[in-house]
Design a protein that fits this description.
about 200 residues, alpha+beta, 2 domains, 3-stranded mixed beta sheet, 6 helices, elongated
Length: about 200
């Protein structure tokens, strides 16, 4: 049994190679990936990472923007389903194939549609034929070694901690306003004096 990939970059690199790999798919579609090396990683795009349903989930930087002239692609860490990840990768590789300077205009659209991407070119979806091909590739690759990052579950701090200070020695502690209101400012463990609460908004 083949050992599963433990690194995401290895998984992406393997997705390019072999008879069912994406290099072969691009060659079959008439849009070969000329770059010998393409770096593919999990990472946030430069903008639009957390805009709900309109968030950016992939980004390609071509050789002209990279000092070592190696194309770099980033797939958002909010994605974990291997078929969706591979679909986004096909979209970004289409940029790499035709050149990022074309954006989502005609050269990109020709490559994208030839590869099986449909819908608006700024937010493509995978055709049934492409999904079938990517499913074969995903089976060969094994599990995508990544867990989705949830950007919606971040909790905002609702309690401001109040600074209390011992005037003689400068010892500082922070407590909630509720604790100070109910129990008073704490006693300094060094001087045994009651500390002063700074309740001015910071």
């Amino acid at each position: 049994m083949k050992k599963p990939h433990t690194l995401r970059d290895q998984w992406f690199a393997a997705a390019l190679t072999g008879p069912h790999g994406l290099r072969a798919a691009f060659k079959d579609a008439g849009h070969p990936l000329d770059a010998e090396t393409i770096r593919i990683s999990t990472g946030f795009p430069s903008r639009g990472a957390g805009r709900g349903n309109k968030q950016t989930i992939g980004q390609c930087w071509d050789q002209a923007r990279i000092k070592d002239n190696i194309c770099q692609i980033y797939i958002s860490p909010v994605l974990a389903d291997p078929l969706k990840v591979l679909g986004v990768l096909v979209h970004e590789l289409a940029h790499a194939a035709v050149g990022c300077q074309h954006g989502h205009k005609a050269p990109f659209k020709r490559a994208a549609t030839a590869l099986g991407l449909t819908g608006p070119m700024t937010a493509t979806t995978e055709s049934p034929e492409l999904v079938a091909r990517l499913a074969v590739l995903a089976e060969r690759l094994g599990p995508y070694p990544h867990a989705a990052l949830d950007l919606t579950g971040r909790k905002k701090q609702t309690t401001r901690m109040i600074k209390t200070e011992c005037e003689p020695c400068g010892y500082i502690a922070r407590l909630s306003r509720k604790a100070i209101d109910e129990h008073g400012a704490p006693i300094c463990p060094s001087c045994m004096d009651q500390m002063t609460a700074d309740i001015v908004n910071e």
